[in-house]
Each structure stands twice: as structure tokens, then as C-alpha cells.
Design brief:
213 residues, alpha+beta, Pnp Oxidase, Chain A, 8 strands, 30% strand
């Protein structure tokens, strides 16, 4: 991902926030016949406070991705959306796309069955806990035999990235009045309304303004 100093994200706390809020990752590797990609939920490793993540792939994606043998690129994409030049006022401008993205790359460590089971259990708990009646992986009618077979059909991994690239392109290169105008449009009811992107822009803008004081 091409970097621009104005848009670079380097704060680990912010990177962890983006990953935690956007766990559906794109996994890319060089396969035997060229680039290959898969899509899976990936979580921050609960035992670490860095950018280490854990996840799993279904067999035979582990072979397609050469998991544990070749570099794996994980892409986490945050809120994104179209930005109209009409939102800038009467100035020369062209359309653009605002977005937040985090790229983690490295050779993942493959997990043994007990560790993979913990990851699968953590994934279920992570997403089910928002529901009024959350299910657990071990809850009946699931049986131990069923869960064991489920684990056997997956390959768990832990990735501590050796390369990190993150970008937050949220109109930071525009004057404050234009940023506020764009946020208002995204928060409105128009064709390209995008409250999640508006909130991400507001967060970045308020932080930037606070640093100038």
C-alpha cells in the first residue's frame, strides 16, 4: 500500500482498534499458480498487547495459501466511502474515496489442535456475546464429537507481523471547514450517506485539532 505521510497510521492502539472493529480479513498469499486470496474472521491475540492476531482457515485453504510456509498478508478494511467534489464548495476538486485500512504481513505459526480449539471458541464467544441469548461452541445440541470434527476441518494460526502498513485517508489534507462539510454530508440522508465513515472522520479530525492546540 503506497504511503503518504499525511495519511499514515502508526499508533498501535489505533491499529488495534481498527482490527478489533473490523475482524473480517482478506488473506493473500502467493500460491503455486500466482496470487490467491481467502476471507476469514481474525481476532487480536487476547494474550498479547501488540498486533499479533489469531484465526483459522478451512481445509484445504491451508494448502492453497501455503499457510506456515510462505508470507501471508492480512488486510483489515475499516469504514470507507465515496466523497463528492460537490461537498467541498466552489473550489477545483475531483471525486475521491475515503477509507481506513491495516495490512499485516508475516509467516504465520500453525496452531496445534488444543490451541486451535481455543481460537475457535474465542471466535464464537466474541461474536455471540452481543446477542441476547448467546450460544457457545460446546452448548447442546453440539457434542464433543461434533466440535472435535469441526476443529479437524480447520487449521488455526497465529501471526505476529514482520511488516505493517496502515493508512487512514480521511480528508486530513483538506481545510477544517471542508472536513466538517464532508462529515455533515456523510451524516446526512443523501445518496452517499455513511455514518460509520463520518464517525471515523470525526474521530481523526478531533484528534488532529487537539494536537494543534
Amino acid at each position: 500500500m503506497r504511503q503518504n505521510p499525511s495519511f499514515a497510521m502508526t499508533d498501535v492502539t489505533e491499529l488495534r482498534r481498527v482490527i478489533a472493529q473490523n475482524p473480517w480479513a482478506t488473506a493473500i498469499a502467493v500460491g503455486d499458480e500466482g496470487l490467491v486470496a481467502s476471507h476469514y474472521p481474525v481476532l487480536l491475540d487476547p494474550e498479547r498487547d501488540d498486533l499479533t492476531v489469531v484465526g483459522h482457515v478451512g481445509r484445504p485453504d491451508d494448502q492453497v495459501l501455503h499457510l506456515g510456509e510462505r508470507e501471508l498478508l492480512l488486510i483489515f478494511q475499516g469504514p470507507n466511502g465515496y466523497i463528492s467534489p460537490g461537498w467541498y464548495g466552489d473550489v477545483r476538486a475531483v471525486p475521491t474515496w475515503n477509507y481506513t485500512a491495516v495490512h499485516l504481513a508475516g509467516i504465520p505459526e500453525l496452531l496445534d489442535p488444543p490451541a486451535n480449539l481455543r481460537v475457535l471458541d474465542d471466535l464464537v464467544t466474541h461474536f455471540e456475546r452481543r446477542l441476547p441469548q448467546p450460544r457457545t461452541m460446546w452448548q447442546p445440541p453440539n457434542t464433543e464429537e461434533f466440535v472435535t470434527a469441526l476443529e479437524a476441518g480447520t487449521v488455526g494460526f497465529r501471526l505476529t507481523p514482520t511488516r505493517v502498513s496502515a493508512k487512514r485517508k480521511l480528508s486530513q489534507n483538506k481545510p477544517d471547514d471542508i472536513v466538517e462539510s464532508v462529515i455533515a454530508e456523510l451524516d446526512g440522508a443523501g445518496e452517499y450517506a455513511n455514518p460509520a465513515l463520518a464517525a471515523e472522520m470525526r474521530r481523526a479530525h478531533e484528534t488532529r485539532v487537539a494536537h494543534r492546540r
